[in-house]
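Exercise 7. Given the encoded structure of a 284-residue chain, write a plausible sequence.
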């Protein structure tokens, strides 16, 4: 019953059903895995890790280790994520979540070939893995294949519509194509999932700035900066506003300073934002 509720997207109900299970009722490893997956869906990451903590052996240990790896990745602890993924993949080279972690960590280090191979291996066994489609799409974006990336990211968004990162990646892909309306729709999807996520407000700020809607852009920048002082997208929006005032060197410095603080995947150089401004500038 709990599994059926989980598959149907009724995670809260699934958790309530699992709460009625008692010690000795069925396979405890299976119950722990299902509970952890439900809690992961509910973004209760520490609670999900606690649900898996008692499982230290058994035939399904690689699955437990793989799910632990993905949870640590989403917590932001890449050291523990790597450790658990390596253990899982040593025992089962096709373990789903561990493969996603390996591909994602390679993506974040811009080791595109290694990342692509990891995600493709995941998809060979799990063709509906939204996280793998997301990773492949981001790899194509890094390589400048925007149209192909958009197709993969749209598939990822269909597979896991409740994943904010997917909507953000799709929005950036749409921005790279100059599709401001599409990017706005994707940021709207992210906003519906979490109204307090700073990067979504930064996305709104960038769309407003690119539309020459200065007042709205400034308001969104303030909200984004308050929610996430280190957020990147609000800095891109700020640079567009400076650029439109003719303060090009200041605009470049805003981005260069941001890149110095937070390099890595998703961080695009100043030249990108200059090209984007020209791409969406009205002609006539």
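Solution.
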């Amino acid at each position: 019953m709990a599994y059926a509720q989980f598959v149907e997207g009724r995670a809260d109900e699934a958790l309530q059903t699992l709460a009625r299970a008692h010690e000795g009722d069925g396979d405890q490893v299976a119950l722990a895995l299902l509970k952890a997956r439900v809690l992961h869906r509910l973004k209760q990451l520490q609670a999900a890790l606690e649900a898996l903590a008692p499982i230290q052996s058994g035939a399904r240990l690689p699955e437990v280790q793989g799910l632990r790896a993905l949870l640590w990745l989403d917590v932001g602890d890449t050291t523990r994520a790597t450790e658990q993924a390596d253990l899982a993949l040593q025992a089962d080279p096709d373990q789903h979540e561990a493969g996603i972690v390996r591909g994602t960590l390679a993506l974040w280090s811009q080791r595109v070939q290694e990342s692509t191979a990891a995600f493709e291996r995941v998809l060979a066994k799990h063709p509906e893995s939204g996280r793998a489609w997301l990773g492949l799409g981001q790899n194509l974006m890094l390589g400048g294949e925007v149209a192909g990336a958009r197709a993969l990211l749209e598939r990822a968004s269909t597979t896991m519509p409740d994943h904010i990162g997917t909507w953000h990646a799709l929005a950036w892909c749409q921005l790279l194509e100059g599709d401001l309306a599409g990017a706005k729709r994707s940021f709207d999807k992210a906003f519906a999932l979490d109204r307090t996520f700073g990067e979504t407000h930064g996305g709104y700020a960038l769309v407003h700035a690119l539309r020459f809607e200065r007042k709205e852009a400034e308001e969104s920048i303030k909200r984004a900066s308050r929610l996430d002082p280190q957020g990147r997208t609000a800095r891109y929006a700020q640079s567009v506003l400076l650029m439109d005032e003719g303060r090009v060197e200041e605009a470049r410095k805003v981005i260069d300073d941001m890149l110095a603080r937070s390099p890595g995947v998703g961080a695009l150089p100043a030249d990108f934002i200059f090209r984007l401004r020209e791409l969406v500038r009205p002609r006539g």
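Remark. The chain has 17 helices and no strands. Students should compare their own answers with the one above.
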